[in-house]
Protein: Maleylacetoacetate isomerase-like protein
Amino acid sequence: METPTLYAYYRSSCSWRVRTTLNWKRIDYETIPISLIKDEQKTPEYSSLNPLQVVPTLKIDGVSLTQSIAILEYLEETRPEKPLLPRDPIKRALVRSLVQAIASDTQPVTNLRVVKYAGEERRDEWLNYWMTYAFQRIEVQLATTAGDYCVGNEVTLADVCLVPQVYNANRVNVDMSKFPTIQRINNKCLELDAFKKAHPHRQIDCPDELKEN
Structure:
């Protein structure tokens, strides 16, 4: 069987979600870097794979899949051995609610395209405001769902989505002391190999000054 190929950018939170899930499910894959800074996502070659000109794209099972949440769901359905969705339907719904709070409500207004349009002079203020706004509400939701992780005591797709968003928040100096549950879950996840290996600073396209072993 052909090795899956992930087209990704090291600091893309959407790419990070997919890396973590591939690692968690112990799926070997090859990474092809796509630099968003250099607009490589807009080249004809990449656009033929992903007409939306975003990352990630995952080539697997003879198809090219786009949109990180769709990819995560596909991997969950086709590689269920190490599940990231609970069996209980109520818990599954809680996980999906948190996933959408991050992937649909938070990340889109803080991604590179939106920030460029908002203007460089407002960049950090814009990012800090929207991440703080989202985390205030996610923290309240976690008060009713969290155990060791976002929903109970098992790692789920909610954790996979949360960790990259915390990284982004730290980059723009969001006061994470206001969100102790989010911070605790993030720290616990980063103790796990699947999350460690997926970290941006361990990717092949990470700049040398940030790279970690």
About this structure: The radius of gyration is 17 Å. Residues 4 and 61 are 8 Å apart (CA to CA).
